[in-house]
Amino acid sequence: MDMMTDDNYMEGLEMETENQPTMDNDFSARLSDKTYQYPTIREGTSSSCRRVKVRSRPRLQSTKSFPPYNQCIGGLGEDGDGDDELYPEPSNVTRGDRNDVFQGTERNEDIELIPRCARDEVKEHWKLRRKERVGESDEVDTDGLERWSGKRRVEEKSECEDGRGKGAQTASGNTAGWSSPHPILSKLLHSSSGSSGSSINFSSAESDDVFSEGEDVGSKRRAFRKSRSWKTYLTMVHWSLRRQGSWVQLAGHQGNFQLSEGGEVLKLYCEVEAKCLDSLMRDALRPFVPQYHGCVTRGEHCYIRLEDLLSGLRRPVIMDCKMGVRTYQEEEVTKAQTRVTLRSDMYQKMVKVDPTAPSVEEHKQKAVTKSRYLQWRDTTSSTSTLGFRIEGIMMEDGSIQRDFKKILTLAKVTEAMLYFTRSQLDILKAYHSRLLALSEALKNSLFFRTHEVIGSSLLFVHDHSSKASVWMIDFGKTTPLPDRLELRHNIPWAEGSREDGYLIGLMSLITSLSQAISMASSQQEESCGEEQSVA
Ligand SMILES: Nc1ncnc2c1ncn2[C@@H]1O[C@H](COP(=O)(O)OP(=O)(O)OP(=O)(O)O)[C@@H](O)[C@H]1O
Ligand SMILES: O=P(O)(O)O[C@@H]1[C@H](O)[C@H](O)[C@@H](OP(=O)(O)O)[C@H](OP(=O)(O)O)[C@H]1O
């Protein structure tokens, strides 16, 4: 079947059934209505669920047809294979997992200064799941590819007091597995079998075949409707799988995201982030931020509804750059001074990159504080030198590179840009002008002036058709400043200043893109010259 081979992503298929989102009515009308008032955020858990069922998402395969980044351009990723040999991970631990197994020292939740709502709970859930995996499976995701739907389990209500979940299931007439169409498919099937109008066109040959004989027109019609419903179902399955196959979570916390049928990305609710997004929808930065559609409750958790920035892109190429000269909040440092919480997972990440980084004491306790780890990450990457760092790049074949941890110079960043864009001038230029436009918008943004922007990313996305854009994402650690305080964002941080250095990072990126453009232009001219001399 076409859909199974198209992207080579699917190992198997299991359709998800779920409840109707509680705030999902009239979604398309909202999208087009610019004056739409975002729904009130409802915190807490859903009480309507009597029984919760857990089922696996479709498993996804990775492909890796291009050589890795560090082989392409002279081994920039110094922490690649060699380190892996020195400090091998347990064979059954997924490389890409963000929250490594804790060894002995439990994380103290008091370190969280701002309520992150359900996210802590989900982090714990993933840690537990990881422990379970270590015990029960020897699956290894060797290239670190973390396609969201391949690793996540979805909690879903199988029966709800309000009947919505039940309704979604009975619409298909089935209850589980392959045989159970997705709720949206169920609806489509239902309506397509009940009406003659369909958005799916079939060849006239097919229609002729069905209606050419005069006899038993009624049963022919029924047969046609049946086959059309089936085709509609397959087309929709294909569409749904393709979308799931092309969406990827490149960086960030595992378990934070889900896709919804409405073409949105659902991110686990965080009050800080929801408030920022709400303000951003009324700010000069709105064109640079995914559209925010309020919140929705799914199962036990509340999610922020965001525009899917990969929608419409075929085999997207993505880069996530974490912005700013630091990735920790000032409060994280001061709190760590009074309350010491040790993290063995962070110690492990540290020694993997540089075995000499921990102090004698840290080696002895095999743990570091989060604040120490975050500061070390910033000073050993381009965060402190250039005001941003590349968190990861996904190429069009789905391969993911995360070996940019030790990049410190602009020249190395420019090499990474050329690799990421495959030196395509039109894409480099599109990114360059988008960043210039962003820098103008930031000048006019009240939100930007009045917020400390920590840990936020710029998401670069393009595809083979040269659609290219850059978006501001992740506002989970972006906080409003006290009254009348405004930040410049273009000066280094000094404790107490709350400066984040966002504009230092933006300027570095713009400079790097300018360099990449001139290098790509000369490469192009050289190859043109060579072609002409051969001719
Ligand atoms: N609106 C969106 N559309 C498409 N992809 C998205 C969107 N938002 C996030 N992503 C994907 O998810 C990844 C992680 O996003 P984000 O940084 O918001 O998560 P996070 O868990 O808060 O991260 P962190 O751990 O850095 O705080 C991004 O790198 C990107 O690949
Ligand atoms: O990128 P790395 O080196 O893997 O390190 C992670 C990164 O710094 C995240 O930004 C941070 O989450 P926050 O931004 O939410 O603090 C996370 O902390 P966590 O493990 O406590 O979630 C770190 O583990």
UniProtKB/TrEMBL annotation:
Gene Ontology biological-process annotations: inositol phosphate biosynthetic process; phosphatidylinositol phosphate biosynthetic process
Entry keyword set: ATP-binding, Kinase, Nucleotide-binding, Transferase
Biased composition (Polar residues): 169-178
Composition skew (Acidic residues), residue ranges: 78-87
Protein name per Swiss-Prot or TrEMBL: Kinase
GO CC field: cytoplasm; nucleus
Protein EC: 2.7.-.-
Pfam families per record: IPK
Biased composition (Basic and acidic residues): 95-107, 144-165
Record's catalysed reaction(s): 1D-myo-inositol 1,4,5-trisphosphate + ATP = 1D-myo-inositol 1,3,4,5-tetrakisphosphate + ADP + H(+)
Gene Ontology MF terms in the entry: ATP binding; inositol hexakisphosphate kinase activity; inositol-1,4,5-trisphosphate 3-kinase activity
Annotated segments matching region Disordered: 15-107, 130-191
